[in-house]
Amino acid sequence: MRADIGVIGGSGFYSLLDDAEEVSLTTPYGPPSDVVTVGRIGERSVAFIPRHGRDHRFPPHRIPYRANLWALRSLGVRQVLAPSAVGSLRTEHGPGTIVIPDQIVDRTSGRVQTYYDAGGAVHVSFADPYCPSGRAVAVTAARATEWNVVDGGTLVVIEGPRFSSRAESRWFAGNGWTIVGMTGFPESILARELALCYTTLSLVTDLDAGVEAGEGVTHDEVMAFFAQNVVRMRTLVADTVQALPEERTCACGSVLDGIKLPFDLP
Question: What does the H/E/C string look like for the chain?
């Protein structure tokens, strides 16, 4: 079974796919978060992985990121969409805003962030972490459905599972960063190391702790807001999938050209 496009998201995205079938896969990095569901959105073949598992058993710092991306590539996927919930570091980008970031800052610790940790050094360009073609398509699709869209911005990824302190949140905002989340890294760099196009669609569910007064962010509030918007997010992902180019012309697919890899990619 093959797929052209991968979606890594929450369990609310299962109903995206028509003619869906489940595929159990193993990888050199263990099993992915759950069985992969392969189906269609319009004319496009799509593979879906629930990032945290269908029962949400994997917290952000325990997600099998390497297995997830490897599984998608082994099915033929070359373009990946990654919807997620984030907190905003900017009062002007309140809940309900869609941010399509163009930069990322890693503030995680202890997460394995490479496939190339043995057999020789492999250095992959990561100056521009997200696919420019995927980003452009996602922005256009979001604007067409009247989302409040932010084209560009910096996602800072924290280790979790805790939320930020007020001081950390203010520090992030003071650096000019835009949104904060827990799952965008190492997903993005692993996709790059597999020469995949990777695009994040970030739904702002709350203002982060240092941005507004109050008791701070709670897990229940984030989950409730995302659940209220999951149908709309599914529509956005489906529209983006159908508008992605069938032939890649971006640089993502050639990032490994000229590099001697220690093993063959699927």
Answer: CCCCEEEEECHHHHHHCEEEEEECCCCCCCCCCCCEEEEEECCEEEEEEECCCCCCCCCHHHCCHHHHHHHHHHCCCCEEEEEEEEEECCCCCCCCEEEECCEEEEECCCCCCCCCCCCCCCCCCCCCCCCHHHHHHHHHHHHHCCCEEEECCEEEEECCCCCCCHHHHHHHHHCCCCEEECCCCCHHHHHHHCCCEEEEEEEEEEECCCCCCCCCCCHHHHHHHHHHHHHHHHHHHHHHHHHCCCCCCCCHHHCCCCCCCCCCCC
